[in-house]
Amino acid sequence: MERNQQLRRQLASMRQSLFDQGHLDEQFILLEELQDDANPNFVEEVVTLHYRDSARLITTIERALEKSPLDFNKLDGYMHQFKGSSTSIGAKKVKAESTQFREYCEAGNGEGCMKTFQLLKRDYATLRRKLEAYFQLARQAGPNEIACRPK
Amino acid sequence: MNLNNDKGSMSTASSSVTVSDQFPAGLRVLVVDDDPTCLRILEKMLGTCLYEVTKCNRAEIALDMLRTNKNGYDIVISDVHMPDMDGFKLLEQVGLEMDLPVIMMSADDSKQVVMKGVTHGACDYLIKPVRIEALKNIWQHVVRKRKNEWKDLEQSGSVEEGDRQPKPSEEADYSSSANEGNWRTSKRRKDEEEEIEERDDTSTLKKPRVVWSVELHQQFVSAVNQLGIDKAVPKKILELMNVPGLTRENVASHLQKYRLYLRRLSGVSPHQGNSFISSHSQEPPYGSLSSLSGLDFQTLAATGQIPAQSLATLQAAGLARSAAKPGLPMPLVDQRNIFSFDNQKLRFGEGQPQHMSSGKQMNLLHGIPTTMDSKQLVNLHHSAQSLGSLNMQASAHGNPSGQSSPLLMQMAQPQSRGQILTETSGGQVPRLPTSVGHPILSNGAAGAMLAINGIGENSRGTGYNSVSQTSSVLNFPLNHSAELPGNSFPLGSTPGISAGMSTLTTKGGFQEEINSDIKGSGGFMPSYDIFNDLQQHKPHNWELQNVGFAFDASQHSNSLQASVDVTPSVLVNQGYSSSQRNVQNSNVSAMGKPIFSVGEGSEHGIALNVGQHLNSLLVDNSTRVKSERVTDTSCQPTLLPQHFGQEDLMSAILKQQQDGLGPAENDFEFDGYSLDNIPV
Fold first, then answer.
1. What is the 3-state secondary structure (H, E, C) of B507-562?
2. Which residue among A31, A52, A77 sits closest to B41, beta carbon to beta carbon?
3. Which one, of B360, B355, B358, B322, lies nearest residue B344 by Cα?
4. In what order do the strands lie in the sheet with B75-79?
5. Per its UniProt entry, which superkingdom is the organism in (chain B) (predicted)?
6. Using an 8 Å Cβ cutoff, are B463 and B259 in contact?
7. Are B363 and B350 in contact (CB under 8 A)?
8. CB atoms B35 and A46 under 8 Å
9. Is pTM beyond 0.95 here?
10. Comparing C-alpha atoms, which of B620, B628, B564, B566 is closest to residue B596?
11. How far apart are CA B61 and CA B297, in angstroms?
């Protein structure tokens, strides 16, 4: 009980910090709201799907950035996809960086693209790590406790 | 999971009463998205809305599912950007073959893309991330579509329609509630109608529905081509086709659809219809329309002439698949429209002088698509919509008078074909605009023109819009640069249009110019109207939008020649215009700058036909245009230049015509296509 309460508190604060630090936005909350008894791990499921799919995209973009000259159209296309996916889980920082990246693509600024991509990768990795920890803790604290917490 | 309920209801329950009570619960939704994350989320959301969800991550698979289970789904939701097939293409296919409402979604909320969705016939466009609230209401599209289809059936005055009689008795089983009942009844009726449609007048037995296979359709198209679009009457087509068991009614209904389809395509590419053009060139320009109209007209004419073969092929490909659905007038009809446009053109000329007012246009339009029933009109609108949708919406709502509004409205609601018609009001639009509009619109310029004219111009608008829309807007898009090959500016004729178009885009300033252009062309009625409106209404947004479309349309037509590969539907529309366009389309590729692209292809299409005047302009401009090409290619909405290929042409023309036009950046987000360059 104690332990559980502690876990839950920890979980709550973890979750809150994700929002406070700007990693997540309201979209994540909408996902949480979709979670119900029928799909008790819905948020985790979606997040997992996202990371699986987006990892592939990250690699693709990375490879494309190594080419010379840069194919901005393609890059933009990939990033559009990536952005869509990130948006749907509420990855705020990553989404902003995706937008920035696309703007650079449009401007044909390869340098800008690469720089932004580095930032994006960093934030992407950070969020991924944090969410993994979050879900792990959530599983420990008990499935019902996660995500249904009112903000 | 999809209930293949022969009732077509969305209910999961077997009893109609239950279903209706539950509506919209149980609505059978097919959601297509290559992103697994989004797909999963949508699935969950739709499930929360109590819909019956089937998810699919590949467009091809989705199409297969839809084909094998024709009545298994009520609505389709699809992403725009998918690796295996463009969402718009899927949209068109579904519209063609299954005539289901399709909702597009994308993270991309740029006007162009949204416009594209509209012009391609999407009944709604959602921006990602999609909220569940947005999904809760999607059932309205299903109801609306059924209702409109039903209405179309009723309104249509064609023979086959006459066969259809409401079957009240059948409906009796259906719903308990009035609404649902109507909905279901409509659907049921529609199904019935479809069957009856093919039936011989005298027959009292229910004949098996005629399925327009690719081969059959090709036979049909070749027969039509043989006869010439003007002379292609069902009886003769039937004789030429010599298919046992095929009735005149079958052919008549298919012809209607074909005409609508052509009309949509034609906006873009007036193709080799030289005869048409020449015949028109003789005609006095539409007075106020100015060269632009003339151009359009010619382009249109040209479009009309679009070689049946190319169109046929495209159509065959695209249409054949769908068993002549009554609701699908599109491709089929359009062609017809284009041709009919020729006939109509004359009318335009009469109508027009001086007054760009819609009235004239209406005449033209009216004259043309006599056969076009509301459905066709809708289709046209669709095409027109592409062009005008943007504008239309803006103008339609905002613009006064009938002129723009009808068109605009029509365009604005691409949604179901039927819907459009209904929207437009009155009827003016319905027939004519489509036919007339198409050619013109497709040209892109036409579309723009039309759009500008206000869709409201009345029927004209409708016609135009649809025409241009389909061609330009849709195809135009960024995605398919290839599509619009040649777009840029329809041959000679387009320049005027482009100019017109550009003017359109510029908003404000444009109007004046356009008017002048229009006047010059005279030939092109539709454009005339557009311009009129422009002048009168100054629908800024609208103009731009239209222009974009118009160009697109034209581009498309051009693309027809060039890029047939682009989705057939797209091509077809565009193709027409593209055929016309000799001018490079270079621009076309650029984002879908719809307006121009249309114009390009449709050199003919643009039909703005400014008239000989334009032609000459175009000719001169073409060379000029090329060099000038507006570099809008950058996807920005730039109306003109990019797609068009014609842009150069247009710009050249526009330049001449309007110096004042500023960059079109109006609402459309055009980059500031320098209208300045465009001779006005």
1. CCHHHHHHHHHHHHHCCCHHHHHHHHHHHHHCCHHHHHHHHHHHHHHHHHHHHHHH
2. A31
3. B360
4. B52-56, B28-32, B75-79, B102-106, B124-127
5. Eukaryota
6. no
7. yes
8. no
9. no
10. B628
11. 42
